[in-house]
Amino acid sequence: MSAADSPIAAGRGLCSCHVCQLVSRSTGTSRAQYCPRCGARLHLRRPGSVQRCWALVIASYILYVPANMLVMMETGSLISYRKDTIVSGVVHLWRTGSWMIAVIVFVASVAIPLLKLFSLTLLLISVQRKSTWHPQQRTRLYRLVEAVGRWSMLDIYVVTLLAALVQLGSLAIVKAGPAAIAFGAVVVLTMLATMEFDPRLIWDPLQKEEFHD
């Protein structure tokens, strides 16, 4: 199969702008090309995207530990005072009958960030190994990770809302603990890692395989 017959855009000399998504034809020269619509520099693939994505994912794994081990929220009143991590807060909500809230917090604050990290790790390993395994499913996985990323901030929103609603002078106090900073950093880093990953790399090994055929 020749390059002109390739179903892959790069094989036909076409380049998609990573900013406005306009598809332009590459000149094939060493000179830098720029998008005719938005002016961004054009690349067939984002330079160093895998390395930057790995750095962000590894940093997220490191920060995920203190985000779940340190205190997320401190609540106090004239009668009692509690310090809760994310997991202990989920357990407390479950035991007090707030099952739905416990499930939402667990999914948004524990399960989703971890699944995002596992998914990005799988995608990075697969593109580095030039795998041709289920490219459509891996592309859907990337789109799913991209779509659900913003919901990981739910736990921070809960702490913020509680701090605003429950602060009643000296009667009660709700404040975020040190884990909130680590957790917020994990969410931001995973979102940046998702943005850095170039999903077009998933399809490159398939193009090479077609050329060999």
TrEMBL record:
GO CC, any one term: plasma membrane
Main localization category: membrane
Subcellular location, record wording: Cell inner membrane
Keywords, ordered alphabetically: Cell inner membrane, Cell membrane, Membrane, Transmembrane, Transmembrane helix
Family annotation (InterPro entries): PqiA-like, PqiA-PqiB_transport
Pfam families in the record: PqiA
Superkingdom, taxonomy of origin: Bacteria
Transmembrane intervals: 53-79, 99-127, 148-166, 172-193
Record keyword Membrane present: yes
Keyword flag Plastid: no
Name of the featured protein: Paraquat-inducible membrane protein A
Natural source organism: Geomonas terrae
Lineage: Bacteria, Pseudomonadati, Thermodesulfobacteriota, Desulfuromonadia, Geobacterales
